[in-house]
Specification:
Elements: H1 10-26, H2 30-36, H3 41-69, H4 71-88
Helix pairs in contact: 2-3, 3-4
């Protein structure tokens, strides 16, 4: 295989490297955020487990819609959806209090 270095692709590669670096560093804290909102560990596990399943289902659907109506429309609607869903996380009410405990005592299990 003959690989050529393409300098035009360097900004895209740097962008995706930094994006996935930030994503992978922040993902372990998502269950803690869910626990602080009052979810149990089972609820947080269910929410985190359903994410990849929905991505598996939605990706081909968005590809089909992009082929039919254009990728620009799908990109803009996806960005609006991500912004709306991320903003809506600020308005989730706390229905159970949970304070994180750190220690090696037998009584501190969740």
């Amino acid at each position: 295989m003959n690989f050529k270095f393409k300098p035009k692709l360097v900004p895209i590669c740097v962008h995706y490297f930094l994006f996935f670096l930030a994503h992978d560093f922040s993902m372990p804290y998502i269950p803690l955020l869910m626990r602080s909102l009052g979810l149990t560990l089972a609820d947080a596990s269910l929410v985190n487990g359903l994410g990849p399943f929905f991505c598996f289902i939605i990706t081909p659907v968005l590809g089909y819609v992009g082929d039919k109506f254009g990728y620009k429309l799908v990109l803009i609607s996806s960005l609006i959806g991500v912004i709306a869903s991320t903003t809506s996380l600020n308005f989730i009410p706390v229905y159970r209090e949970y304070s994180a405990k750190i220690g090696l005592d037998r009584n501190l299990h969740n």
